[in-house]
Amino acid sequence: MARSGSLATPRGPWSFVRRALWTAFFLVVGWLVYDQARQVEWDQVLAAVRRIPVWHLVIAALLAAASHGLYSSFDLLGRRWTGHRLRTAQVVTVTFVSYAFNLNFGALVGGVAFRYRLYSRLGLENATIARVVGLSLVTNWLGYVVLAGAVFAGGGIAPPDSFRIGSMSLRVLGFVLLAVAAAYLAACAWSKRRDFSIRGHAFTLPPLRMALEQLLRSVLNWLAIAAVLYTLLQQALPFQTVLGIFLVAAIAGVVAHVPAGLGVIEAVFVTLAGADVPRSELLGALLAYRALYYLAPLAIAIAAYLVIEGRTGAVARARRRTGTCSPTG
Question: φ, ψ for residue 204 (rounded to 5)?
Answer without folding.
Answer: -110, 130
